[in-house]
Amino acid sequence: MTNVYLPFLGKNIVFYDRDELKEFLIQSIYNKSNFRVMFLDEKKVFKALFSKEWQETILKVDIFVCASQIVSWMIKMLTGKRIPVIMPVTIFLDFMRTSNEMNYTIFLYGGNNKVILETLRKVRKSFEGARIVGYYRANIKGKELEDVLINIRKSAPQIFFVSMKSVFKQEKWIEQNRSNFQNSIVLSLDDAFWIIAGKKKMPPLWVQKKNWNGFYKTLIAPYNIFRVIRLFVIFTYTIMKKIFTKKG
Fold it and tell me: Which of 36, 16, 33 lies closest to 186 in space, CA to CA?
């Protein structure tokens, strides 16, 4: 567990590594407490630099996992602390293994119909003892959504996984509907269900081991202008903050 002060938030936030997060999961369920996990990547940091509303959303989260090399670099430059980079799908699989061993109840919410069904199929194949008390696709609204929220409340899962392609819609949805799973441990998994379902590829294993995921993304999509802008802004902000902090 690493407590880090981020100047663009104006407060400290807590980062966990894999082993700490698994241990905290077990302790929390034993104590019948709960927490919410967010994976902090470059998109979320970039938006936080310009949006007060998004900053407030981030500050409502209990625990963070660093999911981006540029964010890890930023924290190292500003605080001197090293934060490991861990992908959402990695923590999802860690929690599934723990749930399989400890007999925890799980609810899967996210993706479209094909993604959630394929994710469910693969999860059940890999974790035969997992107690999946419910699952549903995320692209729903109105009466259908109301029925699903009732189902979530009734099933009262110990762990609630949410995976949406739009990370901002995902966090807003969790915040708006938190009362329906307020006793659950909540993980917002970004695109993890798409990766599990085979609809999106992870970088090669050797790239992951060296923590070169961000560099790999740049190589396969060098003309992604939006990502280039995000990286440039975060890099510039970090360097300027570092310079003016030293002068101060």
Answer: 36
Residue with tokens 């998109």: 43
Residue 28 is given by DSSP the state: H
The pTM (predicted TM-score) of the whole model is 0.89
C-alpha of 6 from chain center: 18
Query: How far is it, in rounded angstroms, from Cα 110 to Cα 229?
Result: 29
Which has the closest alpha carbon to 200: 89, 34, 43?
89
Question: How far apart, in whole angstroms, are the C-alpha atoms of residue 19 and residue 17?
Answer: 6
For residue 67, which of 109, 38, 32 has the smallest C-alpha distance? 38
Task: Classify residue 181 by its DSSP letter.
Answer: G
In our burial notation (b when 16+ CB lie closer than 10 A, e otherwise), range 99-125 reads bbeeebbbbbbbbeeebbebbbeebee
- Residue 211 reports pLDDT greater than 80: no
Task: Say which amino acid occupies 24.
Answer: F
